[in-house]
Amino acid sequence: MSRTTRTLTATACAAGLIAAVSPAANAINTDSLGGPPAGCEVDVEQVAEETPGPFDGTGWTVGEHDNLCGNLGYLFLETEGGTVSSPTKVLLYHHGEQVATQPGDTPRVLLGGHSDFHVALRIQQPPAEGDANADAGYLTTVYVWNPLAGDGDATPIGPLPAGITF
Questions:
Q1: Helix or strand or coil: residue 23?
Q2: What is the pTM of this model?
Q3: Which of 13, 21, 142, 151 has a C-alpha 20 to 30 A away from that of 2?
Q4: Cα–Cα separations (whole angstroms), residue 82 to 55, 78, 85, 95, 163
């Protein structure tokens, strides 16, 4: 038997043993990766109306949103009557159901990019002492739909700013 054949045989046997003794690897549920449920709709205006505002007497207006009935979508809620430095709340959705939120008392959040399985958020950091909010930098956190976490979840990758909750 050649050295390559022995190596491939040993690798195949090891992989088979690992699969045989690892029942969790055989029990992965990927049901959450299916298409959107029939008739899926999210009333974004109602969500904005029902979500507690960032300040007393101030509510939210609907901002950018996409893919709410897909694997991972987003809805930005902007401070009603706010400015570019006003808080933004981001709600993450999977198949029309809210799965995560970023609280409204954090600074400005911008969309960094998205696909059916990820949403990248650019989160404004506090400016240096004496600097204007416009001079503040941003850190990016990418949320990915993780079907391997029980029923699935929106898992953050990257710096996790204070206040992000699931």
A1: helix
A2: 0.71
A3: 21
A4: 11, 7, 8, 30, 20
